[in-house]
């Protein structure tokens, strides 16, 4: 369960339900103030519609539909948060990969050093006893 998602969904619903109830009367009052009262003549509606202002009923119903949409979105968010699982962080996997890479690089380094020792022995730069001593040191470090 994702608690943050559930809390966000609850906040949506808690905001939208009171707004669904309170905002439409507020809009109606404000539109009545704008238009000069409850009884607006058909001529007044024509003027407002030419100005691009919809009727009070249209505004109220659009507002209510908006808040119903927010309620549905909030409920969907709550359901999603309740059924979804938290994905664990994968930092442990990255640490294991890095440690494995270090191990491989250390082994490769030791193999390269052993190869160099063999070349130095073949060229006569070190004796066979020095080679055996150095090889033993390398094998002890692995």
Outline the fold blueprint:
Layout: H1 3-35, H2 42-50, H3 56-83, H4 91-123, H5 128-141
Percentage of residues in DSSP E strands: under 5%
Give the SSE order as H and E letters: HHHHH
Q: Kindly state the mean pLDDT as a whole number?
A: 79
Number of structural units classed as domains: 2
Characterize the overall form.
Answer: rod-shaped
- Please tell me how large the radius of gyration is: 39 Å
Number of strands: 0
Structural class: mainly alpha
Explain the overall architecture.
The chain folds into two domains: 3-83; 91-141. 82% of the residues lie in helices and 0% in strands. The protein contains five helices and no strands. The protein has helices at residues 3-35, 42-50, 56-83, 91-123, 128-141. Helix 1 (3-35) runs antiparallel to helix 3 (56-83) and helix 4 (91-123) packs antiparallel against helix 5. The longest helix is centred in the N-terminal third of the chain and has 33 residues, at 3-35. The two termini are 46 Å apart. The model has no long low-confidence stretch (mean pLDDT 79).
